[in-house]
Amino acid sequence: MFDKRGTGLSDRTGIASLEERMDDVRAVMDAVGLERAAIFGSSEGGAMSLLFAATYPDRVTALVLYGAYPRISAAPDYPEGWPQEVKERILEGMATRWGQGAMEIGLLAPSRANDPAFLEAQGSWERLSASPGAAVALARMIFEIDVRHLLSAIQVPTLVIYRTADILHAVGSRYLGTHIPGAKTVELPGEDYYPYLGDQDAILDEIEEFLTGVRPVPESDRVLATVLFTDIVGSTERAAALGDTRWRELLEAHHGLVRKELARYRGQEVDTAGDGFLATFDGPGRAVRCALAIRAGVHRLGIEIRAGLHTGECELIAGKVGGFAVHVGARVAAAAQPGQIIVSSTVRDLVAGSGIRFADLGVHALKGIPEEWRLFTAEEGAA
Fold first, then answer.
1. How many CA atoms, within 13 angstroms, populate the side-chain half-sphere of residue 31?
2. Class of domain 222-378
3. Between 20 and 30 A from 203 (CA), which of 118, 209, 304, 380?
């Protein structure tokens, strides 16, 4: 990714023509040994990309134009463009307000026009990218761009994508989609030009599908899982009786045993708080067997645990799990007596035929959970 010469950290060498920018693309590709590439151009960068694709079709595998246009100024045969008075008003505003962040927000990001933090960041971007004089000179050059005569010469697969209410670019993008042979045009909802505002994934998904032929599968933020809660019975009293050093050693032995069994039964440790564990499993049978193995193992350490399990749809949040199923699992665990492994009826039903034995504990009201729940305890020897 690179920007046009004369902006950002590059030397101020004057305003580069489209031909010079096209040569820069070729130079960059040559420098990195890239024979062919998919070219992405946005705004007036689309015009330069069109010129490159028409001139060097053998070096372009595909062309993606986002919020691009062939021409921005009105003409007798292009009445959709901006009239002279609008352009002059913009140039005057750039000369007097460039660097303040408010110059073109109404055109480029109307949804953030009243966002002070965004305006401050935009102002910083303006000051770092160009001086007011250079910005005006660049805008004048942009107003003169016209690559409509190139469109019929585009031979490479082309995607034209834009947002419907983007008042600066939508008209030009529609023109491109109509006049580039075989172009695929995708119109997305939204008013902001900046692709990092609004629904970014919609833009990226369309581009990925166009370039690869495969539409990305959205990452699931919800998954069916069995949650297991465990904690040590009487941990406070035990810690007081043993003292800090011996209690810490016992706790480390407990944690090591729990983690060993989690690994054995493909459980994922989610959280450890003091003497308790929260883990998830991709199968309820493994979760129950893991709980039974933990109970048997810590008993040899002279420790008793209580545990609760429930299966349901969980939300994945920054590596953690949440949602209603987790709350139910916690309440099921809270209903357990010392040494008990309590499961919800959902878990019991899902492991039917597994050989795991349960005893019915009847119907219980779980604090903060709607309705009543039938609970079961996993019996010894079931693993």
1. 6
2. alpha beta
3. 118
